[in-house]
DNA sequence: GCAAGGTAGATAGTAATACTATCAAAATAG
DNA sequence: CTATTTTGATAGTATTACTATCTACCTTGC
């Protein structure tokens, strides 16, 4: 039995819903591959159109600009991750175990089907690591935020914060702990790959050592009492 | 008595040493103000030239491009911070106290002279928070890294890792702990300002609560034993 | 089978960006 | 005071990031 979990996206993320047409779906899927291959900065709608055998103008009918496409992809990823988290921690009682599952999800270690809905999750994960912060590190964060473009990220952070509070009721930094956990994992993964001397996970790149680091970091902060 | 601590920069960061001429110094100082005011993306060498009353071509004689200027500014900041760290922890014996000083430095809380060498440190600190990651989140990280452009950052991380190991000999993640500390502080500072629901430091923006969070995060991870 | 409405393809064009080149004027160094 | 370097001024190119328009096509509704 196959489940098709359709992720309904915020309408302000696009001009025309890309999941509503074949061309739109190809823009999203090929966009992921292009961003992954040549990076966000070097990507242009012209290059994407060429690779797809369509025209620049057609892509502009779906997305206002390249930045909005990035925000869309990243938002999709956070919604996917949030769903995965709910699904995989569904009938677990122990919040410790839930957070353990979360760590594996964030590192994308045990991924059964690398293609979901024809979306290349490894490529998308890479984009999130390398480019996601460019989605909010702009002058128009405030306006984008007002349009709810970052809601999926906030929802995920909220859900993680909830689990943190299950494990440690009264912990006063649940949201900050959640957002910093996500960002730290991605940063360290990027550094491990590109600037390994900023980490302790030198060659050979040791995903499991990175996991051990963030696990220790997370659980030690949740175990230690707060003294003021 | 005045000290002029001249920071000698890696020669690959520029085409002509900006500290070697009046025009060069103005490019750096006005560049900081421009990046701070309108952001890295919207800044151009033309706008910088206009604001300085000089010409685009003159700036290109100092810096290959806008990205290199950013890398220069960020590298300058890390060298400044590294010096400050050495200076302010000079005759301290207690590594705990050293790390405490570091936290204050990273947050730029107690800054006696906001202008060092005519460089606006508050503006530069802001740039580091909002734009520094764009210095390495590019396709040419590896090449830039080979040219030692990130050495100041690595040196700082190495020094912090050293203090961490004083406090906690044998801690296996000293470098990752150092780099994640820096990144976490900057991320949380950015979120507090722009996406406060990702933090627990809502309005009114509470710098001291952020400090309390990272302090707890840092020292709990260094206090907790590692179980494998 | 056909009209109406919408989607995509194709071409063109504009303003801004990210540079490069050149030459003369001005500053400075020996 | 001359030689060299630095800056100013102007110009030009390729690319980017769009916007506009028109035609072909493809539904679907009747």
UniProtKB/TrEMBL annotation, chains A, B:
Give the DNA-binding residues.
44-63
Q: Which residues form the signal peptide?
A: none
Residue span(s) of domain HTH tetR-type: 21-81
Name the domain of life this protein comes from.
Answer: Bacteria
In terms of InterPro entries, this protein maps to: Homeodomain-like_sf, HTH-type_TetR-like_transc_reg, HTH_TetR
Keywords in alphabetical order, please. DNA-binding, Transcription, Transcription regulation
Supply the PROSITE patterns for this chain: HTH_TETR_2
Q: Which GO terms describe its molecular function?
A: DNA-binding transcription factor activity; transcription cis-regulatory region binding
Name of this protein: TetR/AcrR family transcriptional regulator
Q: Which organism is it from?
A: Spirosoma sordidisoli
């Amino acid at each position: 039995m196959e489940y098709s979990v359709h992720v309904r996206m915020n309408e302000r993320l696009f001009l025309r819903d890309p999941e509503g047409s074949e061309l739109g779906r190809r823009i999203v899927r090929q966009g992921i591959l292009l961003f992954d291959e040549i990076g966000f900065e070097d990507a242009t709608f012209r290059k994407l159109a060429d690779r797809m055998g369509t025209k620049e103008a057609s892509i502009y009918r779906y997305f206002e600009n390249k930045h909005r496409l990035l925000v869309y992809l990243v938002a999709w990823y956070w919604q996917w991750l949030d769903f995965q988290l709910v699904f995989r921690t569904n009938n677990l009682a122990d919040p410790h175990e839930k957070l353990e599952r979360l760590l594996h999800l964030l590192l994308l270690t045990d991924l059964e089907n690398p293609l979901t809905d024809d979306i290349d999750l490894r490529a998308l994960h890479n984009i999130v690591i390398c480019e996601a912060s460019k989605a909010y590190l702009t002058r128009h964060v405030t306006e984008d935020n007002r349009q709810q473009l970052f809601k999926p990220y906030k929802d995920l952070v909220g859900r993680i914060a909830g689990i943190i509070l299950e494990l440690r009721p009264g912990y006063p930094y649940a949201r900050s702990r959640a957002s910093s956990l996500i960002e730290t994992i991605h940063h360290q993964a990027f550094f491990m790959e590109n600037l390994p001397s900023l980490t302790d996970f030198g060659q050979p790149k040791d995903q499991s050592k990175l996991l051990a680091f963030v696990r220790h970091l997370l659980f030690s902060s949740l175990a230690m009492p707060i003294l003021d």
